[in-house]
Amino acid sequence: GRLLLAATPAGLVRVAFASEGEDAVLQELADRISPRVLPLPQRLDETARELDEYFGGRRRRFDVPLDWQLSSGFRRDVLSHLAVDVDYGHTTSYAGLASLAGSPRAVRAVGTACATNPIPVVVPCHRVVRSDGTMGRYRGGEEAKHALLELEGVR
Questions:
Q1: For an engineered disulfide with 11, which of 21, 40, 67, 80 has Cβ 3.0 to 4.6 Å away?
Q2: Which of these is catalytic: 25, 114, 125, 129?
Q3: pLDDT 10s digits, 127-143
Q4: Could you read off the pLDDT of 57-103 as tens digits, one per residue?
Q5: Contacts of 135 (CB under 8 A, 6+ apart)
Q6: 4 neighbors 16 (Cβ within 8 angstroms)
Q7: Is position 125 annotated as part of the catalytic site?
């Protein structure tokens, strides 16, 4: 489906699924970043190209700069580890990601970090599954998570 992309001069700040509602996402950006949300699609050309390559099976890691200002503290640490340490075609559990982030008992906090990930797909929270191997929830919906894992060859 469609994705809404938003960037600041620092980098990609938000990827939103259609199910999140464009108006709600734009309001969130206006409230949390700047009341001046401007349509400048050329700023997002590189991100769109990399996403097209990813969905076409020709890209396994994203190179666009990221603006992490919508995540802070432990959530940001978790997402940073996720972006670097969980490779394409692989999954980790919430507990495994908690260990990577240095807090093995913070499994629920890891779940919250993934659920509030402002840059899904590019920061691959779809690669985090429950310890029993079931998928768990996903901001873009269960179908989107399943499709992303299937695209990456995860069964």
A1: 67
A2: 125
A3: 999 999 888 889 899 99
A4: 999 999 999 999 999 999 999 999 999 999 999 999 999 999 999 99
A5: 129, 142, 145, 146, 149
A6: yes
A7: yes
